[in-house]
Amino acid sequence: MHNWLANYLExxxxxxxxxxxxxxxxxxxxSIIQGSAMIGPALYVVNxxxxxxxxxGNSLMKYADDTHLVIPACNVESRxxxxxxxxxxxxxxxxTLNASKSVEIVFQDSQKRHRAAPPxxxxxxxxxxxxxxxxxxxTDKLSVKEHLDTIRYDTIEEINVD
Length: 162
Hints:
Strand 2 and strand 3 form a beta hairpin. With about 160 residues, this protein is of the alpha+beta class. It contains four helices and ten strands, in the order H-E-E-E-E-H-E-E-H-E-E-E-E-H. It has helices at about 1-10, 40-45, 80-90, 145-160; strands at about 15, 15-20, 20, 25, 60-65, 65-70, 105, 125, 130-135, 135-140.
């Protein structure tokens, strides 16, 4: 099995074609090979097995090539330390934390009368009001209404097209 995986991962190259121009072909030497749907997600989970939080009570959820850092309100001050830890882990593993693809969502219980003020926005990480996790859209009010509305809309469109 080891030899089969090593053989699969060796010798992959990449080039980009844009606007009629093609870049040089370079060997891929990091990350998980895009489009490797059968083995890529499992390789990421194995590769990220040693990535952990630094603050008790915080947790990481890893699936395919996605990682979600969950920080409860009582640990909100640990956000910068956790992001720095993930960034350091990525560098050691020849990967890059892509801040432009990283977002923060602050979940709030809309039923509570007295809500705490949300923490300040983190530098370089966009705060969003909805987030898709494993194909399901959640809002910062702990609602999946946006997701259900999208499914209903898609279904209506399919009916209208037929």
